[in-house]
Known about the structure:
This protein has about 600 residues and is an alpha/beta fold. The chain is built from 21 helices and 30 strands. Strand 29 (about 515-525), helix 19 (about 535-545) and strand 30 (about 555) form a beta-alpha-beta unit. It is globular and about 75 Å long.
Amino acid sequence: MNEYSFARRLVGTQAGRGGVAKRGFGIRTPSVQAIQRGVVVNSNSRDVVPLFDPAAVAERVAAGFWPNRTIYTYLREAARRAPAKCAIVDGAVRLNYAELLDLTERAARGLYRLGVRPGDVVSIQLPNWYQFPVLEYALARLGAVCNPLPVIYRAHELRFMLALVRPKVFVVPQTFRGHDHVAMARGLEVPGLAALVVVGGSGGSGTLSFDDLLSDGDTEIALPDPDDVDANAPSEIVFTSGTTGEPKGVVHTHNTNFCPLLSLISQQGLGADEVVLMASTFGHQTGFLYGGQLPILLGGTLVLLDRWDAGRALQLMNAERVTWMMGATPFLQDLLDTVRTTGRPPGTLRVFLCSGAPIPHPLLVEAKQTTRCSVVCGWGMTEVGLVTLGELDDDLERIAGTDGHPLRGMSVKVADDAGNPLIGHEGELLCRGPSLFGGYFRRASTTAESFTADGWFRTGDRAVQGADGYIRITGRSKDIIVRGGENIPVVEIEDVLHRHPKIARAAIVAMPDPRLQERACAFIVPRPGAVLTFDEMCGFLTEQQVARQYHPERLEIAEELPTTPSGKIQKFQLRRQIAEKIERELQSGRTLGRFTTDAIAG
């Protein structure tokens, strides 16, 4: 497969009227909105074209949004500048920059021997082990495309994803947390797969071990010049985390991925002294970007954790003098619980970037008192990376009440149903700017539907924007609860519930109702040893002066809530669970859950 084969596969064709082939990426004809977001839309040609219009590329490079480099060139530069500096800490394994670059070169030669060429896809399903970033950088070295996959995914998810991207090579662990990944991979029958590479074992017949991949055979093999790799060609296909249903393959380039990272570095004043702890999976964009790429851009140090354990994380923070961490709100909560138990705060942590869920105000107060680090909120998506970010010196009210302001180069708009901008009122959240993805892999119509007529990307989120530019995410558009014609302010009620001393996590979703169409159901994970009743929950909401009409009308106690690999609650699963439970209750003749008297009378 030559260097252009991926672009041909990426855009695809769809049979149009009269047999005219339509380009599978973007909109049918060149248009103002397409130029605004930089997507080439020559719909009548199957010629190979770049993902982004050359004029848009030149403009974004000149403005400093796109460096026009690859992650490999950043690694090479860091290794030349400080070869003996520690680059990665993975348990007992410590790699300096010279060693990391050497492993990357050897992995690139091994992948090249397997037939991986510019534009080919390699799928990687590994825990947060050092082998993942080595492979990521090796693929960038070759101009190939990395397809990161969360290690928790099983055959059902993988079969769909691998059939879509058709990787040349698939990399898995021998086993992880008791699961035999090699046996699972053998049963997937991936079309066009040239090799199954196994990390942490031999894998058996028909596989190649990671050690063999790194073998020094054919050291004279001539690899492509890494400086010839196009930073505007596809470099990653990462799947959306599935908060609303079927995952979509998001296509990024080196430039679109670097854009939010460079803005983050500038805004927070990050430098080569940073030590980054990453516990979010490399199979998701949080781990891939802020673990796999941010430390390399800085010339800093990456500390890996292959599964979230707050006690282990705290030990690593103090042992490795971690200065920066990004994770979902539950990570922060677990960390503070551990600090409270051990009495040992992370002494060097300066920044905890929290995303994926609102931060309860009491949690912020405790974080400030016990860790003395800056907790900042940010909002982003797989398709656009980090879009909004709070300031390090924001006060607690702003941190708890907003999700930051747009990063440099990005624009956001909260709009009504007609597309008119709103200030101070909830609406659809739209965004655009240089960190926007190239499109959904082999999903032409979905890509087109994701943009408004004037070029704004539809995020699927609801938000309120203040006059100061800060936004507050109020929920997913599909998570809105309309009870008898009135919208329930879901995020606000969840925030209140998180203040209850017995509640660890709360999620409110719609449940079907024959009269009002929808009612609110609260799924609650109690704190260890706590018992919460429906009446206690409603009584607390009343004490907090929440209108009765906004009270959840059913309480479901859960040991845990379904989440994406990045920690976002999958509310579509909760909606399905409660709908199925209500259906079973109706069929059995049982009464439906607990309802507040005043609310049901509404």
